[in-house]
Request: fold
Amino acid sequence: FTVKVIDFDGNVYSDEGFSVEAPGNSSYVFYDTLATDLTGNLDPASLFILVTYRGHMSGVEATNIFYLTAPKDLKLPVPKITKTVEATANGYRVTVFSEQLVKNLYLSSSIPGDFSQNYFDLMPNETRVLEFITQKRDPKIVDKIQIKSLVDSY
Reply:
């Protein structure tokens, strides 16, 4: 697994990797440290810790994001989010990208339908592809899918 300390612009300040063996149906503490030991003098309101586990034999990947302060105290940037929309057999493929962290990204549309993923954190420089399932076709679909995030709430 890996433990990374990253700021909201995507700069990596610490990247530690560990090899562990975890027997099935078990629970162990493999890593234990103080957040201050990882962040040093960096501003905790501008950082997150990303923990990623990759199972070598299973191919399973799991990630956890840890913020070091309450959401209301985070110094979130106003991200520039790019969005592309392509028609599919079941509706539309929506691709979102931002160079900065987007905390609690939320998609909505005036067109009835369901998003395959919604209300998630988009990591800096991450491209996320999701589906908007709908039977309705609209030539102005790009304008009818809105994106909001936590930073838009204040």
In short: Helices lie at 35-39, 141-144. The mean pLDDT is 91.
